[in-house]
């Protein structure tokens, strides 16, 4: 077994709670720019979400599997790549879409739909593509997601902040306008702070294994961005 396959990260339940709180804050800040009409426009033109879901749950895992065969990383890294490609987008993607002045309503809709579908699609993709690669097959264990836990997560870190943010944007637009910039800066500060904290707890592991993962992460990100970009471009 490769040395990196036996690596264990320091990440406790309290860190998960903190991350969820930060993601809820990010979602609230993003929602200050949203109104109900934004989502009506998404429903009237569903092609965007459909293309996004195909790219997310079909194309990206397939391309990732192909990438693991080409670069042949350690089994644990290969399985990690498949796992990442099988997971839905999150609130951070909503933040970056909003920050770049993209279609935030479409991004939030995609996050909501893909998170619900991930109850079924994430275990399926991890199991299917993980078993296709003989290197990852030996370390793959059964993957289960609790539907109630997923729905609770959607409600707490997506639903509640979304409703609150849209309430302020609709009923108290002047206050929402004043809160946008502070929440945008706070979102970046909190998220970067969390990343720094996570790195500090795993700094020795990071320094020891960065040579194994840096180029893999870079190439995988390029593949993921390319899949998303060209899927949208071809779907116009």
Topology:
Layout (H helix, E strand, L loop, with lengths): L12 H19 L4 H9 L2 H25 L3 H12 L4 H9 L4 H29 L1 H4 L9 H25 L1 H29 L1 H32 L2
CATH class: Mainly Alpha
**CATH topology assignment:** Na+/H+ antiporter like fold
Helicity, in percent? over 70%
Q: What is the level-2 CATH architecture name?
A: Up-down Bundle
Can you tell me the residue ranges where pLDDT is under 50 for at least 5 consecutive residues?
none
Distance from N terminus to C terminus (CA atoms, Å) equals: 46 Å
Whole-number count of domains: 1
Number of strands: 0
In short:
This protein has 236 residues and is an all-alpha fold. The chain is built from 10 helices and no strands.
């Amino acid at each position: 077994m490769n040395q990196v396959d036996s690596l264990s990260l320091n990440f406790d339940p309290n860190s998960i709670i903190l991350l969820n709180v930060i993601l809820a804050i990010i979602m609230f800040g993003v929602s200050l720019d949203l109104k109900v009409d934004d989502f009506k426009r998404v429903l009237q033109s569903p092609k965007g979400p459909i293309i996004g879901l195909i790219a997310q749950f079909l194309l990206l895992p397939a391309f990732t599997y192909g990438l693991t065969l080409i670069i042949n990383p350690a089994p644990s890294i290969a399985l990690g790549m498949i796992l990442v490609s099988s997971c839905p987008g999150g609130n951070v993607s909503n933040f970056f879409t909003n920050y770049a002045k993209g279609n935030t309503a479409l991004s939030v809709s995609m996050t909501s739909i893909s998170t619900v579908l991930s109850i079924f699609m994430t275990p399926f993709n991890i199991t299917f593509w993980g078993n296709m690669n003989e290197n990852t097959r030996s370390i793959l264990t059964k993957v289960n997601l609790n539907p109630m836990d997923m729905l609770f997560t959607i409600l707490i870190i997506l639903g509640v902040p979304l409703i609150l943010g849209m309430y302020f944007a609709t009923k108290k637009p002047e206050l929402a306008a004043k809160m946008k910039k502070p929440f945008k800066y706070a979102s970046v500060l909190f998220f970067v702070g969390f990343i720094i904290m996570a790195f500090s707890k795993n700094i020795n592991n990071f320094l020891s294994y960065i040579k194994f993962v840096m180029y893999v992460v870079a190439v995988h990100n390029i593949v993921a961005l390319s899949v998303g970009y060209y899927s949208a471009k071809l779907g116009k």
